[in-house]
Write a structure and sequence with these properties.
heterodimer, A: alpha/beta, Rossmann fold, five-stranded parallel beta sheet, about 10% strand, elongated, disordered N terminus, B: alpha/beta, three-stranded antiparallel beta sheet
Chain lengths: ~375, ~850
């Protein structure tokens, strides 16, 4: 509440500007410095797009902030995919910056990240192809004027990058209408006896979550029209601690929680526990572990810490202590009461108990586990 | 660049570089030299004609070993795409003399041994940082260094940690290098050219110069060599020997050979050697100076032979591997006449289709496009392995690394196995085996015979180890036979039978190492890594100890710990633990270091403690019986472990006890296990008699289904030895059983009868009879006139007095004193008599 009020008070500023607006300066500097060949209707060359995402310093001294912290290889493959007019599918567990990367790619390539189809279980075919303005349709009959183009259709006719969020949540029959668009690069309008042909520069970036079950699995016909890039979880503990503490800070402020003076150690611990269980091996690489059924993503680590902060602030002494995060961790780890509990107990007994400086945490976990 | 009419043709190459190999072939075709000299041990000259044999298929390796110590050996692996191999085949095909000109193996083996004494890490012509640290634990000390030393290295070596497609990531171990890193010429050149990755630079400028591609229009086949030679000269002016002091000796020897060749062939011969050596071979030095360098070199008697090699071995970074990440890719580059990327993608698609993955031609087209575009974006002339791998992952593998691992194993590394003609000399393993057979006076005989070994004797222990090692290697000379009567751990029986096929097996096992010990160690490690089931690894650990392969143990232990951590079935863990505990005891007998083993075993026990309670519920009768046996095994094992593992011994025991307590208290746990747990606690004195009676009362209360109750009884008093004695001595428990049994309804009685019969029929006849008598007498009846229950005291168990009878207890004391030798012999007869009398009364 507080946040929106503050923003409302400062003026017409939006809560979250689009990537192309927020980083307009960087994009401009890149376009100016970029002397490499650009694919048709691209604002930047593939190299410059990769630089925009990964960060760097231009020859004129402009510093490009990194938008995505991760393997360079992935970004290169993603950008190159778009340059070869293949559609790009970004896969990953929740919280691996899929949407973030897709937005910035669209902003850098086409200068516009708003041609977006939000995939849900209720996404209709109109959202992918076109709809009708019924008043127009009744008054004048079918015509191009009565047609309401979808973001995808607009992207085709203007040679832009369209984005589809959560592709696997879209019902299978609606997904199928994408096949023609992606392979023939054309969208027939049978009612008018016309078609819309995609112009050069058109491409699609889709994101999908590869962890959730019960979603609409892509048909192999659709799948083979995409090049797939799997976005991994943060590679190093430092990177993850950094991400978690930054986000916790933001979330904590919006909830009016007092800042925790000594939270970093506990955050590090939560991140370590999550990473170890997720990777199935301790950070020193010496002991293998079973992995629980949950995802244990960075986003969940953030929520565990936030939850712990709230506990500490309202029921404790304001300092984030092992007891504040123990219950949250247990809840995140033990999703399947039978199998995951064994995993967690084994982890406690074989790893946590022996670790120096983790006595408090061990005890706190034992208390909530039993 | 043909400005070298008089001098020899110096072809500086990268060992195992397909581009170099191609260039060497082109250069030889163009120059048509009268002779070809190759960097390699001159003792191998006699073996060179075998390279043209029809049966010879690369990858193969030249193996040099010291005659009196086969453990000291060195390998020169050669693949089809090795420039040296190409040169050898060219010379043999054109009927031109071909010779090796490197320092003789006789010297290098001896020098390596000396170097070993001075400082462990041997250095190589083009060394790579981190190599020294990669020493596998399972190798004999003296065995490894020479191989390291002479092993053909290519420039750009420190890329060895890199896996395809992961370029740019930090490589571990590089910073940890304790010694100053010797210069890597290719890295310096690559950095000069603005590449951060020397491997990639080399590939771009040399290996990927496939004819028919733009940028690879090599007009003069010798131009590249000349340019590279110049670059190396410039480097060596700056860096000198670049931190490889031994190179000076080798290069001096090579120069002498060159001089000899010049006398014989004039200038018309070619030399194929590592690019790094080219400037040194061109250098003008005097014969005397070179001879001085070679003076007083140590020497051993060395023998050489060809052995078959594999691509996996070429790819291996440690041991005798050549450290090539991608032999399969190189072979492909070397073998494909044109369009390498297209052909590669088609190969990958074929492999994935064979594995039932859906890959269409459209996929191949898109993968090629993506790889080419990636290469363009990264500024490379041709898509390399990392581009093709990225493309395969994104297009054909749906972003997943799982099918990609298959591509890596089958294609990037490849499964090619080399072949060597039968006429090649015998492998050193056979030599080592014969030597050991002589020292241990254990002749290979075709007739079968029995052999009894007493492990307390040194020779017998060594024989046992040898036989165990051979068995690990698949050379079944001896088979363990059932021992004659004795089951002691110091006795072993073997049935020996040597068959001619075993010679073949020995030759096959030669790829594992040059001595029985090193080969068995390598084999055990490899088996451990390949094992899928936990039990396999535990068995392997036991065999390693029997065979005395202490070097292999760390690897086996690590695998064991990993498998144990990931195995979700408590039954498997429980099966593994007793073997481990046993092994720990063997370890003591055989004086091996078993600390690591103990740690693993403790970890295993820990996991069992966590996983056992949930695993004991919802079992059928067979499952419960199996688990009950496992609980017994674990109980014994933990008892043993607590003694052997000092760390946390008490903690472990206490945890196990609490697990048992939990089992006894939980209704959902199968009856037989609940009963067993109660019994184990009772036997160890951690469950009071009263508590045991309460538990039994609970288990046998009328509401419990009779089958469950019978199972509980089976668990509590059945099975293990002495089960029945408890009932004989504790009549309270007997009374509980008795009253339950009489309360079982007639209908269900027939159901529980088989189980009860099984329980009680396992008792010794004496126990059964006593029990029968006790039951017949009835629970309430006094047993003995003197000690009958005092009327009015209901709490007394039948057959026992309410309190201790002090007078009668005192009567036992003299006998005890006698037994303990505390009394003077004089009083013995009297007390004994006295005692007998009293004993009879007590019953």
């Amino acid at each position: 509440m507080t946040v929106s009020e503050t923003i409302a008070a400062t003026g017409a500023e939006v809560l979250r500007p689009h990537a192309e607006d927020a980083f307009a300066d960087e994009l401009k500097a890149l376009a100016a410095a970029d002397d490499r060949p650009r694919p048709e209707r691209w604002r930047l060359s593939p190299w410059a797009v990769a630089t925009y995402l990964l960060g760097g310093v231009l020859s004129d001294g402009t510093v490009i902030t990194p938008k995505y912290v991760g393997p360079r290889r992935l970004v290169e493959v993603a950008v190159t995919t778009l340059a070869t007019d293949r559609a790009l599918l970004l896969l990953g567990v929740p919280g691996t910056a899929k949407t973030w990367v897709s937005e910035h790619l669209a902003a850098a390539v086409s200068g516009d990240s708003t041609l977006l189809v939000q995939g849900t279980a209720g996404t209709p075919e109109e959202a992918v192809r076109y709809g009708w303005n019924y008043a127009q349709l009744l008054a004048h009959g079918p015509s191009r004027d009565a047609l309401v183009p979808s973001p995808l259709m607009r992207a085709m006719s203007e040679g832009m990058t369209a984005r589809i969020e959560e592709l696997t949540r879209i019902p299978a029959d609606v997904q199928d209408s994408l096949i023609t668009i992606l392979s023939e690069k054309t969208l027939p309008l049978p009612e008018l006896g016309q078609e819309v042909q995609a112009v050069r520069g058109f491409n699609v970036i889709a994101t999908a979550n590869d962890r959730d079950r019960g979603v609409n699995e892509l048909s192999s016909a659709l799948r083979r029209r995409f090049n797939t890039v799997v976005l991994p979880l943060p590679a190093t503990p430092e990177a993850e601690v950094d991400i978690v503490s930054r986000r916790v800070d933001q979330v904590g402020r919006s909830l009016d929680l007092p800042p925790a003076p000594d939270g970093l150690a506990e955050i590090r611990r939560v991140v370590t526990v999550f990473r170890e269980l997720r990777d199935g091996v301790t950070t020193d690489g010496r002991t293998k572990l079973k992995s629980p059924s949950g995802t244990l993503s960075t986003a969940e680590a953030i929520s565990v810490v936030t939850n712990g902060l709230a506990l500490a602030a309202h029921f404790g002494d304001g300092v984030l202590r092992p007891g504040d995060v123990a219950a949250g961790i247990l809840g995140a780890v033990v999703r399947d009461p039978a199998a995951d509990r064994v995993v967690w107990q084994e982890y406690l007994e074989t790893v946590v108990r022996e670790r120096d400086g983790w006595k408090d945490f061990y005890r706190a976990c034992r208390e909530v586990s039993v | 660049m043909t400005a070298r009419p008089a001098g020899p043709l110096l072809l500086g190459v990268r060992h195992h570089g397909p581009g170099s190999a191609r260039a060497v072939r082109a250069a030889l075709d163009a120059a048509r030299p009268q002779a070809v000299l190759i960097e390699g041990p001159p003792e191998g000259d006699a073996l060179l004609p075998l390279a043209a044999d029809e049966q010879m298929r690369p990858p193969v390796a030249l193996l040099a070993h010291a005659v009196d110590d086969p453990g000291r050996a060195a390998f020169w692996p050669l693949a089809a795409f090795s420039p040296e191999w190409v040169a050898i085949r060219w010379a043999l095909a054109h009927g031109v003399p071909v010779r090796f000109i490197d320092l003789p193996a006789a010297h290098s083996l001896a020098m390596a041994e000396e170097g070993e004494r001075e400082r462990r890490p041997g250095q190589d012509d083009e060394p790579r940082p981190g190599q020294q640290d990669e020493r596998r634990p399972g190798q004999e000390q003296d065995e490894r260094r020479p191989g390291q030393e002479q092993d053909e290295r290519r420039p750009g070596q420190e890329q060895d940690e890199r896996r395809p497609g992961q370029d740019g990531e930090p490589r571990p171990g590089q910073e940890a290098e304790p010694r100053p890193v010797p210069v890597d010429p290719i890295r310096v050149l690559a950095e000069t050219a603005g590449y951060d990755d020397p491997e990639r630079w080399w590939e771009d400028v040399v290996e990927h110069r496939v004819p028919g591609l733009p940028g690879a229009a090599a007009t003069d086949p010798l131009a590249a060599f000349a340019a590279l030679g110049e670059a190396m000269t410039a480097l060596r002016e700056v860096y000198g020997d670049g931190g490889h002091p031994r190179d000076a000796v080798r290069e001096a020897y090579m120069r002498i050979q060159l001089r000899a060749a010049r006398k014989e062939f004039g200038g018309a011969f070619a030399v194929v050697c590592g690019a790094w050596h080219v400037p040194a071979l061109e250098a003008r030095t005097t014969q005397t100076a070179d001879r001085a360098l070679l003076k007083g070199l140590p020497k051993v008697k060395a023998e050489l032979t060809w052995v078959p090699w594999t691509h996996q071995r070429l790819a291996r970074h440690s041991g005798y591997g050549a450290g090539i990440d991608s032999p399969g890719w190189y072979e492909h580059l070397f073998a494909s006449p044109d369009r390498p990327v297209e052909r590669w993608m088609t190969k990958v698609a074929g492999l994935l289709r064979d594995e039932d993955r859906f890959v269409s031609s459209a996929h191949v087209i898109e993968a090629v496009r993506l790889a080419d575009t990636l290469a363009a974006m990264r500024g490379r002339p041709l898509a390399g392995l990392s581009e093709t791998t990225d493309a395969v992952r994104a297009v054909m593998c749906e972003g997943s690394d799982v099918p990609l691992a298959l591509v890596r194993d089958r294609l990037v590394v490849g499964v090619t196995l080399g072949e060597v003609p039968d006429t090649a000399p015998a492998v050193p393993l056979q030599r080592d085996l014969s030597r050991r057979q002589r020292t241990l006076r254990l002749k290979p005989e075709a007739s079968e015979r029995e052999l009894e070994l007493d492990l307390r004797k040194d020779t017998d222990a060594a024989r046992s180890r040898l036989l165990h090692r051979l068995r690990l290697l698949g050379i079944d000379w001896g088979e363990p036979a059932a021992g004659r009567g004795s089951t002691g751990t110091f006795r072993e029986s073997w049935r020996l039978h040597w068959e001619p096929e075993l010679y073949v097996r020995v030759a096959e096992a030669g790829v594992w190492g040059t001595t029985v010990l090193s080969a068995a160690t390598a084999r055990a490690e490899s088996d451990a890594l390949a094992a899928t089931a936990l039990a396999e690894v535990t068995a392997l650990a036991e065999r390693c100890l029997l065979a005395g392969l202490t070097e292999a143990l760390p690897v086996v232990m690590r695998v064991l710990a990993d498998r144990a951590a990931l195995d979700a079935d408590v039954g498997h863990l429980a099966d593994a633990l007793p073997a481990l505990a046993r092994t720990l005891r063997y370890g003591d007998v055989r004086a091996t270091d078993t600390a690591a083993l103990g740690e693993v075993a403790a970890g295993l026990a820990e996991r069992i403690c966590v996983g056992l309670p949930p695993a004991c519920t919802g079992l059928d009768a067979d499952g419960a019986a199996a688990l009950r046996r496992q609980v017994d095994g674990v109980h014994t094992a933990i008892g043993l472990l607590a003694g052997a593992v000092p760390v946390n011994a008490d903690g472990l025991r206490a945890r196990w006890r609490s697990v048992l307590h939990r089992l006894t208290a939980r209704d959902t746990v199968a009856g037989v296990i609940r009963g067993r747990a109660a019994r184990l606690l009772l036997d160890d004195g951690h469950l009071a008699q009263d508590e045991a009676a309460r538990l039994m009362g609970l288990a046998l209360s009328p509401g419990t289904p009779p089958a469950d109750a019978a199972a509980w009884i089976e668990g509590f008093v059945g099975g293990a030895a002495g089960g029945g004695m408890l009932l004989v001595h504790d009549e309270r428990l007997l009374a509980l059983v008795d009253s339950w049994l009489t309360g079982v309804p007639a209908g269900t009685f027939t159901d529980v009868l088989p189980l009860l019969r099984r329980t009680f029929s396992a008792y010794e006849p004496g126990v059964r009879r006593t029990l029968g008598e006790l039951v017949r007498r009835g629970p309430a009846a006094g047993t003995d006139p003197g000690t009958g229950p005092v009327p009015g005291r209901e709490s007394t168990a039948p057959g026992f007095g309410p309190v201790l009878d002090a007078a009668r207890a005192d009567a036992v004391v003299p006998v005890l004193r006698l037994l303990l030798g505390l009394d003077a012999p004089t009083g013995a007869a009297e007390t004994s008599e006295h005692h007998e009398d009293r004993l009879g009364a007590t019953g």
